[in-house]
Amino acid sequence: MRTVNPANGTLDANGVAVPLRTLLAAVVFAAMVFISVDGSAEEDDADATDASGIEFFEKRIQPLLKQRCFQCHSHESGKAKGGLVLDSRAGWQKGGSEGPAIVPGKPGDSLLLQAVRYESYEMPPKEKLSDGEIALLEKWIAMGAPDPRKSKPPKIDPKKLWALQPIKQPSVPTVKDVKWPRDELDAFILARLEEAGLGPAGDADRYTLLRRVTFDLTGLPPTPQELQSFINDQSGRAYEDVIDRLLESPGFGDHWARHWFDLSCYADLADIQGNVLIRDAWRYRDYVIAAFNSDKPLDRFIHEQIAGDLLPYESVRQRREQIIATGYLAIGPWTLQNYIKGQLDADVVDHQIDRIGRTFLAQTISCARCHDHKFDPVPTRDYYALAGIFHSTRTTSYDGPGVWSQITHIDLPKPEVAPEQLARREQTLKVLRSQQQKLQAKLTSLILGIPGASTANVLTLAKGIAANEKGREYEVGFKAAPTVWAGASQRTGAADGLQIDMLRADGSVVAGFQHNPGLWSGTKDTQKLHRANFSYRGDGTGNVRIRVTSATPGSGRFGGAMDDLAITADGKVILEENFNQLKPSTIEGLQADTKLRVLAGTTVPGWVGAGINNSHAVELGKGDFAVQFFGGNPGSLAAAKPVTEAGKRAFARALKLEKEVQGLTVRISELDQKAAPEKALAVRDIDSPADGRIYRGGNFQSQGDITPRGFLSAVPVSKRHDIPTGTSGRLQLAHWLTDAGNPLTSRVLVNRIWHHLFGKGLVRSVDYFGVHGETPSHPELLDFLAVRLREDDRWSLKTTVRRMVMSRTYRMASSHNSRGSKVDPDNRLLWQMPRRRLTAESIRDAMLAASGELDPARGGPCLGLELKGNILGAGGDVNPANWGGKISDDIKNRRSVYLPLRRERPVGELEILSAFDFPHPSEITGARPNTTVATQALFLLNAPFVKHQANKLAERLAKEEPKDERARVNRLYFLTVNRPADAEEVATALAFLDQSTQDLASISGPEKARAVAWTQLCHAVLGSNSFLFRE
Amino acid sequence: MPIPIPSTIASRRDFLRTTSCGFGSLALNALLQQQATAELSGQGKKASPLAVKQPHFPPKAKRIIFLFMAGGPSQMDLFDHKPQLAKRSGQKLPYELPKTEATVGLDNTRLLGPVSGFKHQGECGLHMSELLPHTARHADDLCVLRAVQADSPNHPVAIRQLHTGNLFDAVPSMGSWLSYGLGTENQQLPSYITILPQEGERNFSSAFLPAIHQGTAIQHVGSSPDKAPIRHLTDSQLPRAVQRRRIDLIQAMNRRQLQRLKTDQQMEGVIQSFELAFRMQTETPRLVNFAEESKETLDLYGIGEKPTDTFGRQCLLARRFAEAGVRFVQVSLGGWDHHNKIATGLPERCAVSDKPIAGLLSDLKTRGLLDDTLVLWGGEFGRTPHAQNGDGREHNHHGFTMWMAGGGVKGGITHGATDDFGYYGVEDQVHINDLHATMLHLMGLDHERLTFKHHGRPFRLTDVAGNVVKEILA
């Protein structure tokens, strides 16, 4: 038994009146200890259901815990000191940092008891429990700690969270200044301003307004012509016409799609390191742009991206589009090279849940991956209800070998092609193939003519060897191992390999060794080949010849060189073969596309195609021979270094010929590719969709209960969206998101649109409407807009944007108002139009527009895979191909959205984006940060891109205004800040030109100095705030 | 009246002082003060976000130099001597491989004994590899953590965890957290510098912390004036006078616009940022120039000789930045990913790095800087005791070695242990979160209190974990 700490006194010594029930309990306790000894306390669930035990708990223990422990160990208090909570059974079972707090049936082993006895921890720290209370706890634990309490439901009452309230159509407020509003939304804004004793700013001037709306709708500046015609247009419809023109321009989709990509984590490359190329990502990019340009209703847009593959369709075109749309889910920052595949899967699913949660619902559902959400009504079971949907969806897959997983490419149904076009393609292919065959034959005979070199698909050692004594064991192996079969990054097809046979005189096989048929990766098989000895037992049928050939037609994915075959028996060398004697031959119809080539006295590249580099080459001495073997695509002869003059000449000819053959091969494969199905990076349901398990603590290795698939339980909807058997549930999720009763999606989306036009959302935390998010500045307006989007405007983005930019609020000036900045310094009430810096893409695109370099071409692939060296790595299935990073000159002056995006901070051509807060393409970013740092200044001052554009701009100005420098300054202002220069600006510019010309004259002569000075002026204007900000 | 365009720095200063409506002189003052900000905040003006801030409790170290050995140096061959491994080299594995990890080149793998000899070094008798003769002279300064643990065997993921505490999300780097928590002592320089980074940009990113806290990369350490140490620092093709005139014009235009608009915080910030950019243009080249360093010092780091020159320059630069008051300096060296031929690859890396690292420790000590500078050495993980591809080693995040020296840690001790072969950490394991908690602790910060609210919740470097490793504190 325990001893009572004298310092704390005993029951009697304290003289504290002990409640009768405590004393009684102590008596009962003595009896119960014995009851629990016979083992029933070991496992807990039995006890938990025991009625009397539960009664004891509820009456005695629960009040005690509540009174003395909950202050620091409960959800109610929001504290879990030492990681321990005591307000649920699970809480003490899991325990705190030291492990379970209670071992049912074993008071002595229970940390909780030690702590309240002040033996280890001293709990509660302020005042020790009375001995009676301690005895109660001891008894309860000895009973097996019956405790019926389930995990606490999240403490937030969803009914109280504003964002989860049903949307009600608010009435439009009345305002004093009835003339001011143009749109109903203006009334909401004005009413609040009037209430605060503020008034709206005056209307913006026309230059400012056109610059603002052109950038906001298309991300580009207005052209001088557009400015001029708007300024001159005196009709009442002038502004409306501008809006309609902008909404119809393709620039609208280019710009608004970029807003979407901030949320959907778009990039043209995959994996966390951001260099694995995805050939088909661009299809999704173009889909989004087209969707915005065609004003696809946003609900439909959501359905297609989440479940496009599951939607009905009426045409091949529609089907293709809907599959491509699911790129939304397929493209992401997956760690494809994660060794731990269970973790990879869980992370992919987590990112998908997070993306959908934040983008459409502005909820941080991901927090519930490890535990019930700390403050929002998202229990862990909701998280895993959603996780089941995405685990039932195939995004990445792994089938080994190696460590890399693959992303899912789906064949797109072929668009209908005219039969005559097909026939033409077939005919061309036929011609090309026959040309290729002829040239190849010529090449083969040429190589065969090179002294000591040969090419064939079979090599046979003509001379028989006395290595077939009956019953004797022969070892065949390589004295020097083949240098390489394939790089660590290579993988063969199903049956690539090398076949070595021992032949009888009649050609029949005594024994054979097939090296490694089946799937293998280079590293593994290099090792195997080191041990690639095989043995056979002689059968006494006479001398044998060695034949080397490929095991099967090559796939073009392996190659290498080998040397010095040896046959030994009983440790004695019978034959050392350096291949001098091997004779090439061809067997018709056998392994026609695999070549073996004997090269003499050369440095033999193991493989000079993509993947294996020359570091794998084997160095041969003079007169030495090696067999080079390869699959269908032999790479180049260029690395071979023949020794003799004749050999050199022959090789030179062969090289030329080979180049021709390769040219044909490329053309053929291009045509083949055209005929092959196009692919999209997309998702699909797995074969057997099913509910998934809870991962305890987010750990995929600790799986708990199965959770039925479903959605967020706290979000009210108008009807059930049951998931039919055999489907993942993505379609139901899509419909649940846009359900008429769902109060989040429409609020969240309309708030995002507002954010992009007015600089800040009505709810400023645009991605988070939860308990710790911000509340709307104009709650009624938010609901009004949400209803209008969903009902009046039928989810039309363009209509919504149009109404917003037509409003009087949007047309306000950004002028200073001392009362406004005092009463409402954050401008939450919108007493002025907020000024803001252009987005990173707009800064770049506007520089290109000003310099005249902007390329209006749009759409299509952007990775420039046709550029030499732009595909790095093997490109096999073990290591995926990487991107070389070159951007084709054909596209490099296009709008930023059409340039390839790494899954890392943009560099090179797009470095400017990194400098100006372009979001990381792996982060869900509804509101970009807006930073001001010295590196931006350095970029604007010295980056080659800015210098180049300044130079082009100066050239353009010199051409357009060759004579009058004042007019040229004015033109500069029109092109950059989109307004005329005032007199002072012209004077400043001219003074700068004069001074700079002087500075430069001694270096480059007066004529050139003036031109450089102009470049400097252009450069300065491109770096100025008037250019970088829109009012 | 046209805005006058000043042509010299002096007149530019006058110009800002005399014609500004407050912000110009404020920016300038901030720039001219070596120890900025106390006054500024005292005047009720907005203090610079990089102003020195009070730590939570008195710190043991004021700055950190992190020697990042990218790729994962092999612990069994350098700091974690395993006699059993040597004895049983070539034998079958006496332990299980983790079932959840996909592998390459591990079929029929065998134990691979250490590729170098070990010796006891220093008074403490630290058992370390003969490949590190110079570092061995500092054995009594080293606090060797032998059972560090990370959560991923993938380079990018583990590197991210080492730098940010998080495996996947974009969260701030430890240097950014320190800059955010403590500010920096020299307002002329960035608070966080990474020299020839090997860690990838995301790992010196400030993520959701203000961008001022992001790491600044030094991209060249050579002596060539054409190669700017900081990206876009200058325009080598244009005379300085012309460059300066252009900055002045931009500033004049921006100032005029601001006068018209009355107030705009961000535009004021842009004007300040151009001033700071200009200061960086003058300060940085001075710091990266070693002309004022003695021959002895250069020799100490192995500068001017092969194969230590480049890494020696990196280390000396780290000392110069640390001395100048930069809060967090990272020095990176790649090439430790020895999947093949570790018996030749590892000695080569040691030859490159051993002397410069020892030189750095000596130099810091001589200058009295080691007492309050924490030096951390290590990679994102270590390597396996078993062979990969026959003669290399695979990644191992289950137990590997890092070491600390200087500010506030016990020297000449080891902490933690791996199993008999060096594969799994079995005793006093230090998780990356613990490492971070300890580093912050040494810098005077409570890792549970250094938080930043983002997406509706407070974030920390250590997420929801991390314990200070009290046993190693001096």
Verbal overview:
- The complex is a heterodimer of chains A (1031) and B (474).
- Chain A has 1031 residues and is an alpha+beta fold.
- Among the domains of chain A are: 6-142; 158-248 and 770-837, no CATH class; 452-643; 942-1030.
- In chain A, 41% of the residues lie in helices and 11% in strands.
- In chain A, the strands form 10 sheets. In chain A, strands 9, 11, 14, 16, 17, 19 and 20 form a 7-stranded antiparallel β-sheet that branches. A 5-stranded antiparallel β-sheet of chain A has the order 13-12-15-10-18, with no helix packed on it. Chain A has a two-stranded antiparallel sheet with strand order 1-2.
- The longest helix of chain A is centred in the middle third of the chain and has 31 residues, at 419-449.
- The model of chain A is unreliable at 1-48, 451-457, 480-496, 516-531, 551-561 and 583-636 (pLDDT under 50).
- Chain B has 474 residues and is of the alpha/beta class.
- Chain B has 2 domains: 1-42 and 240-289; 52-223 and 294-472, Alkaline Phosphatase, subunit A (3-Layer(aba) Sandwich).
- Chain B has 13 helices and 17 strands.
- Chain B has helices at 9-19, 23-32, 38-42, 83-87, 133-136, 155-164, 174-182, 240-261, 265-288, 295-300, 309-323, 342-366, 432-442, and strands spanning 63-69, 118-121, 126-129, 142-149, 192-195, 216-218, 328-333, 373-378, 382-388, 392-396, 400-406, 413-415, 417-418, 425-427, 430-431, 452-454, 457-459.
- In chain B, strands 1, 4, 5, 6, 7, 8, 11, 12 and 15 form a 9-stranded mixed β-sheet that branches.
- The longest helix of chain B has 25 residues, at 342-366.
- Chain B is globular and about 80 Å long.
- Classes of the chains: A alpha+beta (1031), B alpha/beta (474).
- At the A-B interface, helix 17, helix 20, helix 29, helix 32 and helix 33 of A face helix 6, helix 8 and helix 9 of B.
